[in-house]
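User: My notes are a mess, but here's the protein and thiamine diphosphate's SMILES. Can you give me a structure?
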Amino acid sequence: MKNEKLNKILITGNEAIAEGAIQAGCRFFAGYPITPQNEIPAYMSKRMPEVGGVFIQSESELAAISMVMGAAATGERAITTSSSPGISLKQEGISYIAGAELPAVIVNIMRAGPGLGNIWPAQSDYFQATKGGGHGDYHNIVLAPSSVQECFDLTLSAFDLADKYRNPVMILGDGMLGQMMEPIQTKGHRPHTKGPRSKNQKPWAVTGCAGRAPNLVASFRMAEGEMEKHNIHLKNKYDEIEEKEQRFEVFYTDEAEIIIVAYGTMARIAKGAVKNLRAKNKKIGLIRPITLWPFPKKAFAQSPRPNTQYLVVEMSNGQMVEDVQLAVGGRCPVEFYGRTGGGIPSEEEITKIIYGKDV
Amino acid sequence: MEKTFNLPQSLVDIPTHYCPGCGHGVAHRLICEVVDELGIRDKIIGVAPIGCAVIAYKYWDFDCCEAAHGRALAVAVGIKRCRPEAIVFTYQGDGDLAAIGCAETIHAANRGENLTTIFINNTVYGMTGGQMAPTTLLNQKTATTPGGRKAKFEGYPLKISELLAPLPGVAYIERVSTDSPQKIIAAKKAIKQAFVNQQQEKGFSLVEILSPCPTYLGMKPPDAAKWISEVLSKEFPLGRIK
Ligand SMILES: Cc1ncc(C[n+]2csc(CCOP(=O)(O)OP(=O)(O)O)c2C)c(N)n1
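Assistant: No problem, the inputs look usable. Here's the predicted complex:
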């Protein structure tokens, strides 16, 4: 990793997120160990000092998210990473960050729940990630990579979106994606600079009030009507994000009679199934949401045929399926197949579910 | 005649929301006097707690950041590590610092974070209606200990300052009070020391201020001050702890 010119590297999804953060200019990491994302803090503990950044192994996830809040308040690009139970602990802090309109990146490499569950890959935190998660009227922007390359690329996007909208951005992956190794291309991305890069770039940041009026970073709004005014301001921001930032991939949807909808690791497996089935002349395609919030409704604006069937496949008991139903708006049938608790639907399973047999 | 008692430049000239006889206003003023005297207004960043002092930033005329209940020190750590040249302090009540934020307090101190903490010990949760705090005295009546705090069920008053003192990362701890003019002068000296320590990169400094809450002690302001000097200071002795 030392060689900046090196542009093709073999790396895990977790490390790709960490390196993406470094190359995005993130200079603050705080986190508490939890499987299956431990490669991120390990990588950051080595890499942050190399670029003049800060690495803190915090006493808890509660502390980690608040440390990130403090770092973000100074204008620094900051990140915290965890997995499902740890992300539950961070929710109060994420809500404060959303309320105070701070940019921050939060990574959830999901494992199976509820409770301690197990450390197998899962997609069962979709509701928590996309519907607010913590208390109050707010939204995270949620990005769902489905390859190691995308772990890197979407981390760069996450920091840009966080700064652009002054909003928390969550990267939602799972244990399989985090642990998987693939070659990725980092060439063409911004080279990192040493030390904090955002000095005085954010006029609202708390840095000491030399030469200007004091700044305040807070979510508290007690005066009558102030909170409502603020939440309407947030709503307008969210509307703008919904309009401008929907991202998705369509794969073989032309003339498709059946369209699978899947994200992250599940989309990768579904893609394999679609490829095989297309080779056997089955009219099947895939829509892969890349932004989970805003949900890419635009991808469903027009169905290829009036009787297209949608099949949502998830590593959960069915959470994204509700957003697909809303996006399809009753125009076409929406079915669901999922495995949960660490179970992962295979290509064969998906094929059988659709055609009732191997094809 | 020369005017010798002025409003500190760092203190905003508006009435506060605090109850009559509350100690928060005195502590706010002392901090602002110290900030002015050290000439650090343009590089200080305050972290306000969740508690009665939640809007302390309305009275402090310098950069401030909010923190979730108990997380002031974590927020301060994030700020200070990114801006080591700034002077960063937290201002926290006993619920915030010694109950819900106990882990953040101990670990920030143990890492020797170069920060200053002003700890307001009023023995109750003022903001939420006078419930028991970790620092509530035995037999003290609160909204949630109507028969008085009992060791058997609620444990003993938590002496967080004494608990922190042995940690190698801790540079300075002093317990002060605001129940008389002399003690207010001593309190200011301690606050100043805690900020100077940060300027000199000495590590974690904490000043615990025994502070009256007449409303939830159910006392008139002079009686609350007397109670601090005659009762509370016996359980929480004043002076340098480290
Ligand atoms: C997570 C969370 N739990 C509880 C509360 C409610 N709450 C607000 S302030 C407070 C206690 C404040 O007491 P203390 O820290 O002693 O400060 P004081 O008000 O006495 O100055 C509580 C329990 C909250 N805001 N957030």
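Chain B has a mean pLDDT of 97.
User: Great, I'll file this with my notes.
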